[in-house]
TrEMBL record:
The gene is pyrB. GO terms for molecular function: aspartate carbamoyltransferase activity. This is Aspartate carbamoyltransferase. Keywords: Pyrimidine biosynthesis, Transferase. Its EC number is 2.1.3.2. It comes from the Bacteria. Residues 170-316 form the Aspartate/ornithine carbamoyltransferase Asp/Orn-binding domain. It comes from Streptomyces gossypii.
């Protein structure tokens, strides 16, 4: 593993499988009476958020706390950033406070890379979403959710219908919607293809990024043509806050052509999942009926996000001992570690 997690495109298959397997151990901790591990006791994790976030920020916070790290939450609103402080000066301040890891969300693509390579800070940098570039932990939690569902539980065992169960080989994953502005789509295309899945992107021509031809995926404008072959259909939010122009005629027209409703869902295979990273625009890319159906994994994705972020923090901050005791009778919890 590298010291930073900036891009899903940097992960080898072995890296990705190691994170997924470690997350599986972390998920087992959540079933114990004492959910906390002492692994990162005395380490400091800073959540540096320059953009709004609900799920990702609280998920990183929960993950760091479950590993016993000290957590500092920094949001640009209400800080000296609104007085014009630069990323460099903010980073130097965090370094002076002894941050071992900085989790950064930033509206500019490339900000986490800058932080990791600038020399301003000595700890690990984790990208929690940068502009329209990447969101690697979201892709990891999505892959984790698929692997668990396809193998019928914790992964690692054989999977029905192909693959080893440790990766997603032979699976068809369809990603639908505002691909142009989506860091979730970009990270997923890279990670899912590294894990052996075949990815198809579906979007109106105006929301397909330039250069998509070099991505490891297929592209179509016709959602109905791919539903029957999909093992999972991932719906994306239309990101109005990033749109300066009109990209489609009306919301109604968008929903009619690219929205997932009950009728379309009924044309997916019986085992196929509906996924959404949240936040959802109900009535736009997804109807309430689909969002609330048992096939939609949106809430499960949030739960799995904590396990993935625990795994990422544990692996990046250099846990040399096993994160979780192999013997279930003596878990390395805070209590028996004293
Ligand atoms: C996504 C994001 O922020 O990129 N959400 C998330 O992290 N759960 C997707 C979105 O905002 O639509």
């Amino acid at each position: 593993m590298k010291r930073h997690l900036i891009s899903a495109a940097d992960l080898t298959r072995d890296d990705a499988v190691l994170i997924l397997d470690t997350a599986e151990e972390m998920a087992r901790v959540a079933d114990r009476p004492i959910k906390k591990l002492p692994t990162l006791r005395g380490r400091t994790v800073v959540n540096l958020f320059y953009e709004d976030s609900t799920r990702t920020r609280i998920s990183f916070e929960a993950a760091a706390k479950r590993l016993s790290a000290d957590v500092i939450n920094f949001s640009a609103k209400g800080s000296s950033v609104s007085k014009g402080e630069s990323l460099k000066d903010t980073a130097l301040t965090l370094e002076a406070m002894g941050a071992d890891a900085v989790v950064i969300r930033h509206p500019d693509s490339g900000a986490p890379h800058r932080l990791a390579t600038s020399g301003w800070i000595g700890g690990s940098v984790l990208n929690a979403g940068d502009g329209t570039h990447e969101h690697p932990t979201q892709a990891l939690l999505d892959a984790f959710t698929m692997r668990r569902r396809f193998t019928g539980s914790g992964g690692g065992s054989g999977s029905p219908g192909g693959g080893t169960g440790r990766d997603l080989s032979g699976r068809h994953i369809t990603i639908v919607g505002d691909i142009l502005h989506s860091r979730v789509a970009r990270s997923n295309v890279h990670l899912l293809s590294t894990l052996g899945a075949e990815v198809t992107l579906v979007a109106p021509p105006t929301l397909v990024p330039v250069g998509v031809g070099s991505w490891p995926c297929e592209v179509t404008y016709d959602l109905d043509s791919v539903l029957a072959k999909s093992d999972a259909v991932m719906m994306l939010r239309v990101q109005r806050e990033r749109m300066k122009d009109a990209f489609f005629p009306t919301e109604r027209e968008y929903a009619r052509r690219y929205g997932l409703d009950g009728e379309r869902m009924s044309r997916m295979p019986a085992h196929a999942l509906v996924m959404h990273p949240g936040p959802m625009n109900r009535g736009m890319e997804i109807t309430a009926e689909v969002a609330d159906s048992p096939r939609c994994t949106a809430v499960e994705q949030v739960t799995n996000g904590v396990s993935i972020r625990m795994a990422a923090l544990y692996l990046l901050l250099g846990g040399s001992e096993p994160a979780v005791s192999p013997r279930p009778d003596t878990p390395r919890t805070e209590e028996n570690d004293r």
